[in-house]
Amino acid sequence: MGVAPLSKTDDYVTAISAAYSALKKAKFNHRGGYYVYSEEMNKDLTQRVNILNSLRDALKQVGVHVSLGDFGTGYSSLVYLQRMNLDRIKVDRSFVMQSGQSQTSERIIRSIINLGRQLKLDLLAEGIETADQENFLKDANCNSAQGYRFTKPMDYESLLSG
């Protein structure tokens, strides 16, 4: 859960607990420090979006960010970008893996990045494994990346022990 460093007060703990319960009830997935509404979770979209949007201000106050994961795959729809108050779009690794091999994938990545910029959203590319992929994404102005190129997934305790 992407939580900013705040002092642990009863209000803070209550806010985190309430946010967690609401997100769990709305069936949002937790991935990499963010709660992600993946496009594969297509059922009851309106209900989930309404819950998330009503919680968004409270969530932001405690450092929780909202991302649309797997963007461009599955039941892709631009309506998610219109209805959801998002912080970030996550470019799916299936496109990143093809960069350097497929001009079509590179054009799609650049289009997603341009769309995100127009909507004033952060962008994160998933699945970076090579220097060439990293360089392409830097050149395309993607401002965040994750993948084995940087580190393997780790649990919270491993992250803290550094």
Question: Can you lay out the helices and strands and say which pair or pack?
Answer:
Elements: H1 10-25, E1 29-31, E2 34-36, H2 45-61, E3 66-71, H3 79-83, E4 88-91, H4 93-96, H5 103-118, E5 122-125, H6 131-139, E6 144-145, H7 156-161
Parallel strand pairs: 2-3, 3-4, 4-5, 5-6
Antiparallel strand pairs: 1-2
Helix pairs in contact: 1-2
- Please report the total strand number as a whole number: 6
Strand order within the widest beta sheet: 1-2-3-4-5-6
What structural class results from the helix and strand content? alpha/beta
Number of helices: 7
Give, in order, the helices and strands. HEEHEHEHHEHEH
- Approximate strand percentage: 5-15%
Radius of gyration: 16 Å
Summarize the structure in words.
This protein is of the alpha/beta class. The chain is 45% helix and 14% strand. The two termini are 18 Å apart. It has 2 domains: 64 residues, no CATH class; 76 residues, no CATH class. A 6-stranded mixed sheet has the order 1-2-3-4-5-6.
